[in-house]
Amino acid sequence: MGEIRFISTATVAQRRKPNESTQRIDLNPWELRYLLIVPIQKGVLFRKPTQDQQMTNIIHHLKTSLERTLDLFYPLAGRLGTTVNGDDDTTCFFIDCNGAGVPFIHASADGVTVGDILDPVYVPRIVYSFFPLNETWNYHGVSEPLLAVQVTELEDGIFIGCTMNHVVADGTSFWHFFNSWSEISRGSDINISQSPVFERGFVPEANFPVRIPQSELVFGGFPSSSPTQERVFHFRKEKIAALKAKANTEKGTNQISSLQALLAHLWRSVTRNRRLREDEENVHAIAVGMRPRIEPPLPQQYFGAAIQGGRVKMKLSSSPRFNVYGTDFGWGRPVAVRSGGGNKFDGNITIFEGSEEGSIDIEACLSPVTLESMVNDAEFMDVFSI
Question: What is the pTM of this model?
Answer without folding.
Answer: 0.91
